[in-house]
Amino acid sequence: MPAKSPNQLTLNQYQAVASGIPKYCPNAIFTVAGQTFTATQAVAFVESVLNAVSAVSTAKTAWADARLAEAKAIAQDGAAVKAIRENIALMFSNNTTTLAVFDITPKKARAPLSIAARAKATAKAKATRLARGTTSKKQKATVSGNVVGVDITPVVGVTTTSSASPTPPAVKLPSTAAPAPAAPADQAPSTPAQHP
Q: What number of other Cβ atoms are within 10 A of residue 174's Cβ?
């Protein structure tokens, strides 16, 4: 398809030239590219180009309309036609001549893998599962965390007092393991009495 020239006129511009010559310059003689045209000949010449351009424009519009109609038909009915074709392929799966009439290529029977190829595929799948850490449901069910206990440490926030509403004092929660009481400073620690 030839590219559009940057100097090419539009359809409206061709129509304007063809309709303007008889009205504004009916007695003019045009000499262009070594050819001489009277006003009537110039109008006929411009109209021949106009008809060619108009035919292309009409064809482009028709093509665009046809593409839209095709897309709509495929969207609405394409899946149904494909299903019908698949049913025909199943009906005549053993008759290659009939399938050829419908332009259906018969499916090849799947060849079983050789023992070596099957062993290689199995080993590769096993290695892939191991590398990815993929496990079965049963293996996943056996995995659980090992939590012995939980220590909760209370966090006391900083309190601010305002004159509008008094804030109750912060309460310190007792910890789960109480520390041993400290001995007073003026008393010596007692030692257990020894029995003979």
A: 7
Going by C-alpha positions, the residue among 15, 18, 19, 45 that lies closest to residue 33 is: 45
Q: What is the per-residue pLDDT across 161-173, written as a single tens digit (0 to 9) for each?
A: 655 555 555 556 5
Length of the chain: 196
What is the distance of C-alpha 168 from the center of its chain? Answer: 58
Radius of gyration of the chain (CA): 48
- Strand-pair category, 35-38 with 29-32: antiparallel
Count Cβ atoms below 10 Å from residue 46 Cβ, excluding itself. 20
Q: Is 38 helix (H, G, I), strand (E, B) or coil?
A: strand
Considering only CA atoms, which of 53, 80, 161, 46 is closest in space to residue 38? 46
Q: Which of 107, 86, 87 is nearest to 96 (CA)?
A: 107
Long-range contacts of 112-120 (CB under 8 A, 24+ apart): none
* pTM, rounded to two decimals: 0.41
